[in-house]
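Quick one:
INPUT:
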């Protein structure tokens, strides 16, 4: 058994279940233009984030599925469940983005930026796409953790929109180790130093793009609201980095990615999911029997 396999078995919870929850949000109602408590800056940030999900999560699925033929039956099962969850996430954010368009926003520039970024990665070998997915999945997982941990991030939001974001966050936490474990399996024959060097470079690259593109996207949506210049960027940056400061508050979790021996499940934060599930009565499927390697 390789060291990567040992790391995976040792840190991914043995009783973890990944449960696709087929829910639909806001289908029968119009979402207010400033759905986040009448706050254009919070609305712009979350709308800019949502604009990335339909194509971005389809990319995640494609990237991981290219490496789905693994000997570890448990990982193979988790990849299938991950795929189902991400497909539903894409569907629901596509519907959310349509409601944003119905409210008067043009997301086409934001979506084009996502397409351009993904096209660059897709032009490289499949392992590059898996590495990008592995890094971005950690980014989304720590954002999800923060959204569920601190109620201020969605305080005052439209009820259906808030439910969408909490549901998505719960499932991002639940499958946060799948892309990373797939990466470990795909690179199990790499020297440890090479694996760390590649993943560190990729995380720095995707972090830079995430911050630049999401900020630019939010500013574009604020421009469509007639809010420009310092009136746009100063309150937006305060929302992101000041209070409630979701980007500031994930920094320590982001740094952990670079530490020796890192694994997404070194922090078991499933308690956040249980609290969410008790509100919405989601059902966890029982764990499947695992065929261990000889």
């Amino acid at each position: 058994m390789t060291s990567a396999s040992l790391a995976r078995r040792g840190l991914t919870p043995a009783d973890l279940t990944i449960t696709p929850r087929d829910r639909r949000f806001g289908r029968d109602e119009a979402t207010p233009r400033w759905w986040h408590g009448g706050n254009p800056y919070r609305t712009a940030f979350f709308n800019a984030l949502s604009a990335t999900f339909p194509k971005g999560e389809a990319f995640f699925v494609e990237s991981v599925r290219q490496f789905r033929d693994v000997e570890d039956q448990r990982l193979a099962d988790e990849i299938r469940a991950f795929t189902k969850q991400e497909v539903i996430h894409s569907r629901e954010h596509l519907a959310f983005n349509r409601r944003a368009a119905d409210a008067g926003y043009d997301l086409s520039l934001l979506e084009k930026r996502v397409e351009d970024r993904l096209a660059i990665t897709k032009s490289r070998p499949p392992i590059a796409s898996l590495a990008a997915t592995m890094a971005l999945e950690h980014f989304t997982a720590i954002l999800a953790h923060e959204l569920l941990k601190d109620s201020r991030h969605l305080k005052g939001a439209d009820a259906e929109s808030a439910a969408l974001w909490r549901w998505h966050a719960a499932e991002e936490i639940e499958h946060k180790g799948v892309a990373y474990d797939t990466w470990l399996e795909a690179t199990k024959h790499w020297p440890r130093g090479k694996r760390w060097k590649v993943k560190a470079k990729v995380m720095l690259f995707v972090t830079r793009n995430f911050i630049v593109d999401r900020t630019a996207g939010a500013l574009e949506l604020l421009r469509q609201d007639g809010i420009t210049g310092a009136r746009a960027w100063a309150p937006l940056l305060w929302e992101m980095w000041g209070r409630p400061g979701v980007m500031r508050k994930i920094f320590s979790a982001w740094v952990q990615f670079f530490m020796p021996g890192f694994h997404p499940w070194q922090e078991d934060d499933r308690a956040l999911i249980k609290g969410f599930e008790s509100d919405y009565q989601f059902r966890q499927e029982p764990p499947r029997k695992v065929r261990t390697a000889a």
